[in-house]
Design a protein that fits this description.
7-stranded antiparallel β-sheet; 38 helices
């Protein structure tokens, strides 16, 4: 069937900011969809609030709106652009919920917009669990016993039928937000109340427990002609009870019998047909009782899901691209397979390898968080590994996690002191460390039967783990010289990395590599072909193995190997993948053949058509050198780009340089100079550029000496980290001793960095790009909205700066240029400054990509990472048309998004260690409106009327007066705690008094729950009021009340409220902003 001629303009909804449960897999799927639609001649209008995505690059859509994903803003875009259709299936749960809201409000009908990809009826059946349950019963597919509750009383009545343990799932939330497992009535009551509050429709599903059952997923597609294909089967290693996003998963499913698989496949076909998904993909989740084989369907997502990205990367089948074409009316048999170029999309993928996905958690950022894994997803990222066997893929996946020594699966010293009872508890309770506990138990000689009883992990997987543990034990007492070629080959085929073999034999990793090379043991590479080698693969999408035959077939062209950023984590997220993609685009412009190495299945960089050649491999020195060696075999130069993927590839730069690999751009020595605090401090002294007094320490005594010398308070942190890992502000020697003892593992190789903390300073970020002639273009100076002491990644920022004197901005420009020249920066550079008492200080400089590069690129209209890559390849900035610093047309505010809702009990207060998972951008003609848009986009819509609660510490009381007066002038009612209220009244600002949480009832928390408070201004009050403050902030978060914890943030909120009061929603495409942008004249 040819594509529909009536669909000429399509509105695509993105997923918004990166959050737990909805990460960069939707940048991947959305980007694919936009490219597929435009390839068909369709005009694409995109709405997404996330500036860090490839999807929001203005080149990817005809009209790109970086606006809040709310019905009001999307309707404004629809009114302006008048699309024929809306595609809601590539933007996760956010886009699906938004599309349903627009349909139910009549907005789509009002403008004649049709939903494509999934109908309202199909979404309603799949998303409404009661309708889904009834639909499944109609077609004879079993579902768990369940019922809906809209109140606690209804839930208590239902649980009498379903029993304990009980699964509670809020309706219309993503990633299992608010869900949980209750083992008793007390836990049940708490989870139900939380779930009712978090559900947008205030409804929870009470479901019978399937804990211990095996969990499977099928990625399926159906077209308007009722053609149906299974793209991929996926098996969860963890049993039911752990969210699939927090489970190790395996593709294809390995422990299903053929009879069970065929029954599941047939059920999936009946399900997608009954739900009514006619033009797209769906994810269907099943559970099987291992005792009797009973199969039930858990849920269905009528859209591209998190698992869809995994299935696409595992098979080479581009689910989002095909889904977009099906939405235009094509049938599966009319769409060609990009990889074989012979088979159609109706040809079901078959794979002859094993794929393993392992989640990546960031609990170290939230030490108070409960680490038990349940039905609410908690991981922030994931890795994927491909191998010839399960063992091979699993071991590669573990070393892709980048967790230091912990990645060596057999090195679990932290468990050695655990007694057997403690170890049993660790095995019975799923946590982020349970896999390590399994290997510790195997090391102690525990049987697979005992482990199965404790973990409910399938015996087949436990047998594989037992074999790996036995291989490791067999190495005890052996030296590297004791291992023959056959021994080494067997270990490498089982997935053992050089570092693991080195640790087992007491050798160095380099010695293992040289021993392998002498034995002729080198990695070979296989291609992903979607058809188990039945047809030739014409796309170089590769994974490593230690088999004899190699399918890499490298070319003799000049190549650049781009190292990706690995798994998403706080501090190193999608922004760096964005930069890596632009490195590909820029280097391709310069005639390089581009080679991508990465292990993150969620990203655009690991799409098979982003780079010329893709190696899905861990980002370790062993694996990267193996790829470079393979690419050199055909001749031609091979250089490496390490500066765009964050700290992961940067740590490899010196080792790659020593191994004779040319590193593009800024030299490894200059990168090290900027990272090495002593060398960098000496450079700034030579340049006579002010910096806060600083020092380094490898022991508690050294730290005390340094801190006393420079004066408290001090900022302390480990060296060579991203995202402010283990960073703290310390006010006295006792706190410093505690930090050195508990927070870090300091050593001469990894000293602790100690800087004087500039209290009440204003901080700014600068991104710039330099070339080999010494020219430098400053892309933007970004002013932090929060004051010093909050990590730059957690602070909102604005470009252009609006509260900084021009003389300070000029000083910042001069300092940036002088430092860049001294470092010989070729490519990207980020510098951080602070202004205190009229002095501009340099805090740090990083000659690499930063988190703000995508945001500034969207603000200026200049693709900075692409420009930088071309400069690293030898182009001058003048040749690229950049002769002056960049300017912006409008005001652009970037605001962070936090995962606190996932971690009950964790305080929402911000500090020097980064905790945000993503970001949004607000764009407008004024700062106030841009800030208000950004707050709306993060889900903290500023109120325009109502009551404001104020509670600030004594030092903040003089400065809160202006904020309070402005709010009162805007018509808000003010209430405050006793001390703050008295201070305000004594200065002529009327404010009511409200109890603190620990003073009586009704207190401020009660007012928040009852909807009587619309905005909170709460700066930390010190240790005595810690619990009270935290309780208020937590309640505010759960009930969607904006809670501002800095006075600069409060002042910005006042500006935002003033700007949006009484005004209609305004939207503007990036293309319109950029049409009026310009560059500043050369310095």
């Amino acid at each position: 069937m040819p594509r529909r001629p009536d669909v000429k303009r399509v509105l695509v909804l993105g997923a918004g900011p990166i959050v737990i449960g909805q990460a960069c897999e939707f940048d991947y799927s959305g980007s694919q969809a936009c490219k597929a639609l435009r390839a068909e001649g369709v005009e694409v209008v995109l709405v997404n609030s996330n500036p860090a995505t490839i999807m929001t690059d203005p080149e990817l859509a005809d009209r790109t709106y970086v606006e809040p994903l709310t019905p009001a803003f999307v309707e404004a875009v629809i009114a302006r652009e008048r699309p024929d259709a809306l595609l809601p299936t590539v933007g996760g749960q956010t886009a699906l919920n938004l599309a349903m809201a627009l349909a139910k409000s009549g907005s789509l009908a009002r403008y004649g917009v049709e939903l494509v990809g999934a109908s309202v009826a199909a979404i309603d059946v799949a998303e409404d669990r009661l309708k889904f349950r009834d639909a499944m019963r109609e077609i004879g597919v079993s579902v768990p016993e369940s019922g809906y509750a809209r109140s606690l009383d209804e839930a208590l009545s239902l649980v009498r039928t379903t029993g304990f343990p009980s699964i509670i799932r809020p309706s219309f939330t993503l990633g299992g937000v608010g869900s949980g497992i209750a083992y008793n009535i007390e836990e049940f009551t708490e989870i139900v109340r939380r779930g009712l509050a978090m559900s947008p429709v205030h409804e929870v599903l009470i479901e019978e427990s399937l804990i211990g059952w095996k969990e499977f997923e099928l990625e399926v597609m159906r077209d308007a002609g009722d053609n149906f294909v299974v793209i991929c089967s996926i098996e969860n290693l963890d049993p039911m009870g752990v969210h699939t996003g927090d489970s190790v998963t395996v593709a294809p499913a390995l422990t299903l019998s053929d009879k069970e698989y065929q029954a599941m496949r047939d059920a999936a076909r009946r399900i997608i047909r009954r739900v009514g998904v006619e033009t797209g993909g769906s994810n269907i989740q099943f559970a099987i009782d291992p005792r009797d084989g009973r199969m039930v369907v858990i849920e269905m997502n009528p859209r591209v899901s998190r698992s869809s990205a995994l299935a696409s990367k595992a098979t080479g089948f581009p689910i989002a691209k095909i889904a977009a074409k099906l939405a235009l009316g094509y049938h599966l048999d009319e769409i060609p397979n990009d990889i074989t170029r012979l088979t159609p999309a109706s040809f079901e993928p078959t794979i002859d390898y094993v794929v393993v996905k392992i989640p990546r958690w960031n609990f170290e950022k939230f030490p108070e968080a409960e680490r038990t894994l349940t039905t609410q997803m908690k991981s922030v990222g994931e890795v994927m590994a491909i191998g010839r066997t399960f063992q091979d893929a699993f071991m590669k996946g573990v070393r892709s996690l980048e967790m230091g020594r912990e990645s060596l699966l057999f090195e679990h010293e932290w468990l050695r002191g655990e007694d057997d009872d403690g170890l049993r508890q660790r095995l019975a309770t799923p946590t982020d460390g349970r896999l390590w506990a399994v290997f510790e138990a195997l090391d102690r000689g525990w049987s697979a039967t005992v482990l199965h009883e404790l973990t409910r992990i399938d015996p087949w997987f436990l047998a594989q783990f037992a074999d790996l543990a036995a291989r490791r034990r067999a190495l005890r007492g052996k030296t590297l010289q004791d291992l023959g070629c056959a021994d080494l080959r067997a270990l490498k085929r089982a997935g053992f990395g050089d570092a693991t073999i080195a640790a087992a034999t007491g050798a160095s990793e380099r010695a293992v590599r040289e021993r392998r090379a002498a034995a002729g043991l080198r990695a070979s590479y296989k291609r992903i072909d979607t058809c188990a080698a039945e047809f030739e693969s014409l796309t170089p999408y590769l994974y490593g193995s230690y088999e004899q035959e190699c399918e890499a077939d490298p070319t003799p062209h000049r190549k650049a190997v781009i190292l990706g950023s690995g798994p998403n984590r706080i501090g190193q997220g999608i922004e760096f993948d964005y930069c890596c993609c632009h490195a590909v685009f820029g280097l391709r412009d310069e005639g390089f053949e581009t080679v991508m190495v990465n292990c993150n299945p969620e990203t655009v960089s690991t799409d098979y058509d982003t780079a010329d050649r893709l190696y899905f491999e861990p980002l370790t020195l062993e694996d990267v050198l193996a790829v470079i060696d393979k690419e050199r075999e055909a001749g031609g130069s091979v250089a490496c780009l390490v500066q765009f993927g964050g700290q992961t590839p940067l740590k490899l730069s010196t080792a790659l340089h020593r191994a004779g690999v040319p590193v593009l751009g800024t030299s490894p020595d200059s990168i090290d100079l900027a990272e090495d605090r002593k060398r960098f401090a000496a450079l700034l002294r030579d340049l006579d550029i002010p910096q806060p007094p600083s020092g380094t320490a490898s022991s508690r005594a050294e730290a005390r000496d340094v801190a006393v010398g420079i004066g408290f308070p001090v900022v302390v942190r480990p060296s060579y980290v991203l995202g402010g890992r283990a960073m703290a502000i310390v006010y006295d020697p006792g706190a410093l001793d505690h930090y050195m003892t508990t927070a870090v593992d300091a050593s001469p190789e990894h000293p602790v960095l100690i800087d004087r903390f500039l209290e009440d300073a204003f901080e700014l970020d600068v991104d710039a790009v330099g070339d080999s002639t010494g020219a430098l273009v400053i892309a933007g100076i970004m002013e932090h909205i929060e004051e010093a002491g909050i990590h730059s990644g957690d602070s909102s920022c604005v470009v252009p700066p609006f509260m900084v004197a021009e003389r300070h901005l000029e000083t910042i420009r001069k300092h940036t240029r002088r430092i860049a020249q001294a470092l010989g920066v070729v490519g990207l550079m980020n510098a951080q400054f602070a202004i205190k008492d009229g002095v501009v200080y340099v805090l740090e400089v990083n000659p690499r990509a930063s988190r703000t590069v995508p945001y500034l690129s969207k603000a200026t209209g200049v693709p900075l990472a692409r420009v930088a890559a071309r400069a690293m390849a030898g182009r001058t900035l003048a040749e690229l048309g950049l002769t002056g610093d960049l300017a912006v047309n409008g005001v652009f505010v970037k605001s962070p998004v936090f995962p606190f809702v996932r971690f009950p009990g964790v305080d929402t207060i911000l500090g020097p260690e980064m905790k945000s998972t993503g970001e949004v951008m607000g764009a407008a003609a004024s700062f106030g409106e841009a800030f208000a848009k950004a707050q709306t986009a993060v889900g903290q819509e500023l109120p325009t009327a109502g009551t404001v609660f104020i509670s600030v510490n004594n030092s903040d009381k003089p400065n809160v007066l202006a904020v309070a007066r402005d709010l009162a002038a805007l018509g808000f009612t003010l209430v405050a705690t006793r001390g703050t209220a008295a201070y305000l009244r004594s200065h002529g600002v009327e404010a009511g008094t409200v109890f603190k949480v620990n003073e009586g009832r009704p207190n401020v928390a009660d007012l928040v729950v009852n909807g009587s408070i619309q905005l909170i201004v709460n700066t930390p009050l010190g240790r005595a009021s810690f619990f009270d403050d935290r309780s208020v902030r937590r309640r505010a978060m759960l009930h969607g009340v904006p809670c501002i914890t800095t006075l600069t943030g409060a002042a910005a909120a006042v500006s935002g409220i003033r700007a949006i009061r009484g005004r209609e929603v305004t939207v503007r495409a990036l293309q319109d902003y950029h049409a009026e942008s310009a560059t500043l004249p050369p310095p």
